[in-house]
Design brief:
Oligomer: single chain
Strand content: 25-35%
Shape: globular
CATH topology of the largest domain: Rossmann fold
Radius of gyration: 24 Å
Number of domains: 2
Number of strands: 18
Mean pLDDT: 91
Distance between the termini: 43 Å
Strand order of the largest sheet: 6-7-8-3-9-10
Structural class: alpha+beta
Number of helices: 10
CATH superfamily of the largest domain: P-loop containing nucleotide triphosphate hydrolases
Largest sheet: 6 strands, mixed
CATH architecture of the largest domain: 3-Layer(aba) Sandwich
Order of helices and strands: EEEHEEHEHHHHEHEHEEHHEEEEEEEE
Helix content: 25-40%
């Protein structure tokens, strides 16, 4: 496991990055705590990978500073920062065994053979690949190769592990499995993880905190629950999960589809809106219902299949109800 003295906190202070006249990252400040699993989440072009590459030292900072445990590393070369890195493409050496791939960083550092073997055994156990130590990467599945890349990045006990879209090449089912393994590994090693993704499910399922980015700037930072339950603006509400947007008394509100109750007919005294079911889509445990509301908006309602009244059908009239606390007032933007 990671040496607690090697776990690092990062301080990002007013960091900007320019490519010519184009500003890819705009005056970002962020504190990342020791042992935290922090995810940079945003669409393509939001600046999340550029920010990660500046933390790694692969890109120079145009303005601002980055510090590790309070000491600036802005001018420290990437190879001297001692950070672990996991990419989407694995970057494993195809001619080396799994064992040699995992121990490569220690070999380069000329550590004793006995120490390397012990540490590699520890890492292979961590990622549950003890029985694959003598295989070549080409003999492994995509998920297994990604776990080898993770073990290699953690083998030298880096203070920070940077992960750039590491699950992007995996199919959905395997991605979910590796997410669970990655979260468990983080809990066991305690290393600070900084994870880049555009996949909201990955961010929600694994992170201690999420940084939502757009156009090179931070939109909102918080725990998964904070961001999902209390988005501050329309972008956050629509990018992280789905939301209905409702105008009332000159204010804008976000309303999650699963927080709406749907009742047949037009007779419920507490109805917030009334409308007609336009479509119903079955997703196994959940059913998505689109209601054409009488105020000329479309409202999405997600309900558990087991509680779907049998008399609901396309074309049926319905009432829509929700608690006052379910609708979250939004700032502009």
């Amino acid at each position: 496991m990671a040496d607690p003295t090697q776990i690092g906190s990062l301080q990002i202070r007013n960091v900007s990055k320019f490519f010519g006249s184009f500003q890819a990252v705009n005056d970002i400040s962020l504190d990342i705590q020791n042992g935290e699993f922090l995810t940079l989440l945003g669409p393509s072009g939001s600046g999340k990978t550029t920010l990660l590459m500046m933390v790694a030292g692969f890109l120079d900072i145009s303005r601002g500073d980055i510090a590790l445990d309070g000491a600036s590393i802005a001018t420290v070369p990437a190879e001297k920062r001692n950070f672990g890195m996991v990419f989407q493409g694995y970057a494993l050496f195809p001619h080396m065994s799994v064992r040699d791939n995992v121990g490569y960083a220690l070999s380069v550092r000329k550590r004793p053979a006995r120490e390397i073997r012990a540490r590699v055994d520890e890492m292979l156990e961590l990622v549950q690949l003890q029985d694959f130590a003598d295989r070549k990467p080409g003999q492994l599945s995509g998920g297994q190769q990604q776990r080898v890349a993770l073990a290699r990045a953690l083998c030298f006990a880096p203070p920070v592990l940077l992960l750039d879209e590491p699950l992007g090449a995996l199919d959905k089912k395997l991605r979910v499995e590796v997410q669970e393994q990655l979260k468990d590994i983080h809990r066991r090693v305690g290393t600070t993880f900084i994870y880049v993704t555009h996949d909201q499910e990955e961010a929600l399922s694994m992170s201690d905190r999420i940084v939502i980015m757009r156009d090179g700037a931070i939109e909102q930072v918080g725990t998964p629950k904070e961001l999902y339950e209390r988005p501050v603006n329309r972008f956050t509400a629509s990018f992280l999960g789905k939301s209905n947007f409702i105008e009332h008394a000159g204010k804008a509100f976000a309303l999650r589809p699963e927080k709406i109750d749907l009742h047949p007919g037009n007779s419920h005294a507490d109805a917030r809106l009334r409308g007609t079911i336009r479509s119903m889509t079955y997703f196994g445990s959940m059913q998505r219902i689109i209601v054409a509301a009488d105020n000329n908006t479309e409202i999405e309602v997600d309900i558990d299949v087991w509680r779907n009244p049998s008399n609901l059908a396309e074309g049926a009239r319905v009432d829509l109800l929700w608690e006052d606390t379910a609708a979250v007032e939004l700032q502009s933007g």
